[in-house]
Amino acid sequence: MIAVFHRQSLGVSGIDAATRFGVGSTALSTLAMLQLLVYAAMQIPVGVLVDRLGSRRMLLAGAAVMALGQLLFAVSADLVTAAAGRVLVGCGDAMTFISVIRVVNVWFPPRRNPLIVQLTGILGQFGAVVSAVPLITSLHAYGWTPTFLWAAGLGGVALVAVAAGLRDRRPERAPAASGVRAAWAEPGTRLGMWTHAATSSSAAAFTLLWGYPFLVQGQGLSPRTAGMLLTSLTLLAMACGPLLGHLAGRFPLRRSWMVLTIIGLTAGAWTLVLLWPGRAPVWTLGLLMVALATNGPGAVIGFDYARTFNPAERIGVATGIVNGGGFAASMSVIALIGVALDLRGGYHWAFAVQYPLWLLGAVQVMRYRTRARRRASAPLTPAPAPA
Question: Is the backbone of residue 345 left (phi > 0), alpha (psi -120 to 50) or beta?
Fold first, then answer.
């Protein structure tokens, strides 16, 4: 929750940040992208460190680094200092997620793991809620520096909570290089990576940047209606997570079919909206929100593959590969939509750039599902659960 709060805190303070640093929207978006790129680049290195040092140490380090980043952001008066603060926030954020996933993997029974991971993601979303109205209210009431100083103080809360409440299980240590190579060579890891990439990218692009402009400028909705649709997407995703987690744990042989169904539903909903003559009616946009709500919970199935097909000593690096690949796909879709908007000038053409990724993702999921099953059934090989 605290990591998600730190991650989202720039987005809701964008107008104040532009005024404080005297920059335009391009420089401000660069600040946000820098934080996210650091988060993506740190996935595999952090995964290696989590496997070697354990979750407790990495969570303590992540909380401290995020707190330091927010402290620097609180006192920054120029864009360079602010950028350094957001880099630290992105770095500490990367340390947190993989560490929490490993805690779930080593402390909960395999059948419960998918549900617990989904519930963890839902709890994390409350951090996004706290980063909205309370943070904006504090900015208007107390100003920039006091607001981000108390935000940095949340890092201290996380430090105390982890130090007092978390016991760690440290698996057998494996050499870092061999851990990365072995995790990448495992077809189940790449199955998880493509699952994450194909299911998460559309909703990520929609919620992080392009959804609100599409609804208001492209579909002519009022800001209030657009906000209600985006809120409904978040609430539907929170409701969908436990259901998919329960189904993935109860029917592990059908996980890949769940993934392919989510890809198909998302592509189908977008096709309905994009091919509708003129502006799509609100009920079709509501169906789109329902389809997009399955994306985040569907992507979490990718982490379940990382757990299923990798031993405990390399869960961290396998999770990093899955998360990094999915994040790279989301960033690619965000960038391609922007390029398409500049070239064609219409949202319908811009959002059509998603179709090649869905097709590639579905093909790769089926390809690595076959390889993972073949490897699982090979003699003299430890047999993880099928895909």
Answer: left
